[in-house]
Amino acid sequence: MKPSTQGNNDRKPAPRWRRRKDTRPAEILAAAQEIFGERGYDATRLEDVGRRAGCTKGTVFLYYESKSELFKAAVREAMSPMVRDTEQAVEEHQGSARDLLTKVLRLRWEHMARTRLTGLVKLLLTETGKYPDLARFYNDEFFDRGQALLRKVIQKGADKGEFRKVDVEQAARVVVSPLLFAAVWRHTFEPVVPAPIELDEYFNTSLEIMLAGLDPAHVHETVR
Amino acid sequence: MKPSTQGNNDRKPAPRWRRRKDTRPAEILAAAQEIFGERGYDATRLEDVGRRAGCTKGTVFLYYESKSELFKAAVREAMSPMVRDTEQAVEEHQGSARDLLTKVLRLRWEHMARTRLTGLVKLLLTETGKYPDLARFYNDEFFDRGQALLRKVIQKGADKGEFRKVDVEQAARVVVSPLLFAAVWRHTFEPVVPAPIELDEYFNTSLEIMLAGLDPAHVHETVR
DNA sequence: CGGATAAATGACCGAGGGGTCAGTATATCC
DNA sequence: GGATATACTGACCCCTCGGTCATTTATCCG
Question: Which residue of chain B comes nearest to A168, CA vs CA?
């Protein structure tokens, strides 16, 4: 006798799959976030996403219209908490602009370093080049909001005399670039390079430089 | 009589193509640099490269082994001058470390902002993720050399007391990140966003912040 | 001029993968 | 324990694109 199932009950040969209309979307989304993050947009096969989510490609299409819609959903779900947390932090903050800037950058850093986000941030920065609608989506829904926040913080610091007078818009970009660089680095070069970045050292150094760079104590004329 | 050609000479019906064994490689390389830069690695069709170079896909393969070899050649040709110039600048420099750092960063900036390089730098940072050999190639042949140079400059400044004591390796990364961010930005988001970055403003602001950030005049303790 | 050489072509191959859908297995209801 | 509804499957379609190669055609040379 072929022991088709465990135990004495040979009536339920353990169904090959189950219906879970309500949990599927989340399962698929989680798998998509992982795999998109690991391999990038193009290299992600929907069949693999399905497999990791415990279903088939067909099921993926049952819940998401297309690859690019799935991607957007994955990004949205992963990034929203970060944006929300950061906006809240700015709103509630009492105290120096220095501390606030530190807090905001650190919050972003934590999110990016410790969640599935790393991979997705890198992705957005990079592979969206050939998909203008994805680029626009990311820019409008996330990047711009983040930058607006940073501009606000820097402007506030400048007004209170805690920061130098700088071009606020450009400074906001300068200040995030180390974070973005880290995201790109980790997912592009770290895997092929012997020595990994010491992440916390890197972040702390970048914060040091940024804070010192914005400090008004400076009276050097810097560039000609 | 069928007027096969212009004028009186009906013997040379304008050849459909010409032999140019010696100029083809360069033509193809130039086309490849442009198109890779515009569209990224995957989205680049060798047929399009051929067309822009004035030949067919078949001819491309006559001079380059494969797509990835063509890509490496394109990158090598585009990046070498920058690396060479920068290394030379460091070698020959007399004067303050501040000036040297400024010079090196500005040199890189000029190269990246004004040549076909922008597109390729962005590419390397991004799409190489799924092609480990390309990532390794770029890291070994270019990125590492550039970073070594920056470390040297920063170390020198620290030794002479012109810069603060910082984690040199991390600082070298922080200092380039605005440049890399700009490369990514221009090729990913600028096309889909109304207002472009004011490039020179951006660079100057970033230089300001970096130089001030490394200045030893600072006695704040910055981060806890 | 005409034959030899080889540069260039373009039709072709095959793998890969997004997207579809007829059929099948599971859940539910009576 | 059917009968019905539908979540899920997996084989299939078809297009794209890197890479190949027999054939075509420009050029060289005697």
Answer: B205
- Give the contacts of A11 (CB within 8 A, at least 6 positions apart): none
Q: Estimate in Å the CA B21 to C1' D21 gap, whole number.
A: 19
Cβ–Cβ of B170/A206 closer than 8 Å? yes
A 48-107 residues inside an 8 A Cβ radius of B: 102
Residue B159 clears pLDDT 90, i.e. is over it? yes
Residue B108 — φ and ψ, nearest 5°? -60, -45
pTM above 0.90, yes or no: no
Is the per-residue pLDDT at A213 higher than 90?
yes
Q: Report whether pLDDT(A153) > 90.
A: yes
Predicted confidence band of residue A221 (pLDDT cuts 50, 70, 90): very low
Nearest CA in chain B to A99: B223
Tokens representing residue A68 in the block: 């690019």
CB contact under 8 A, A212 and B214: yes
Check: CB of residue B154 under 8 Å from CB of residue B96.
no
Q: What is the mean pLDDT of residues B109-136?
A: 79
Cα–Cα distance for residue pair A172/A162, rounded to 1 Å: 15
Task: Say how far apart CA B111 and CA B117 lie, in whole Å.
Answer: 7
Say whether residue B125 is in contact with chain A using an 8 A CB cutoff. Answer: yes
**pLDDT tens across B166-195, in order?**
999 999 999 999 999 898 888 778 878 888
Q: Please tell me which residue, A46 or B7, carries the higher pLDDT value.
A: A46
CA–C1' nearest nucleotide, residue B60: C8
How many Å does it take to go from CA B54 to C1' C8?
11
Find out whether A183 and B121 touch, Cβ atoms under 8 Å.
no
Question: Which DSSP state fits B161?
Answer: T
Of the given ranges (A158-172, A208-222, B24-38), which has the lowest mean pLDDT? Answer: A208-222
Do residues A95 and B5 touch, judged by C-beta distance below 8 A? no
DSSP classification of residue A162: S
What letter would DSSP give residue A196?
A: P
